[in-house]
């Protein structure tokens, strides 16, 4: 059970969903547990083996898989429909949308996401790629190489269209 990370998750979700920068644990925790199945997946993941027990009474989403050994605080999952997160590690305050796959290319190679990374709807991040902090993977992009920090990438194969907020067109 990781109470500190759950408290950070609640704060971040409260800020995004309820526009509540204070994000007090109790009203918000109950609100998200009741109305946001994606939040339940994250919470049960944080609770480890106890999560499976609570899932009997209050079900998590069947289509959202968090198979990552280390997920930093403040992960926001906007929609968990058909989303698989099998990374080596995920940093703090990342954001993941629906129909995303973050996963292995073979038995050992899987991605690392640093802090504050956003993975938009339908994007795939595959194999031993590291996504640098503050970077954004555009909708439906396919990333198989390292992504530097502070960029936006789009397309298949993914290319850089923004670096430090400035429009670019660079290969990865
Ligand atoms: C990538 C994204 C974040 C936009 O980033 P941005 O820095 O504002 O990019 P711009 O809109 O300035 O576009 C830059 C270039 O990338 C292209 N582009 C933007 N998003 C793209 C995408 N997802 N796939 C392919 N190309 C894309 C634009 O057409 C533009 O190319 P051009 O100059 O040749 O016409 C956004 O397009 C995106 O994918 N958002 C997804 C949001 C999401 O998941 N929503 C679901 C909510 S339920």
UniProtKB/TrEMBL annotation:
Transmembrane segments: none annotated. The keyword NAD does not apply. InterPro entries: Hexapep, LbH_SAT, Trimer_LpxA-like_sf. Keywords: Acyltransferase, Transferase. Coiled coil: none annotated. It holds the Pfam family Hexapep. GO terms for molecular function: acyltransferase activity. This is Serine acetyltransferase.
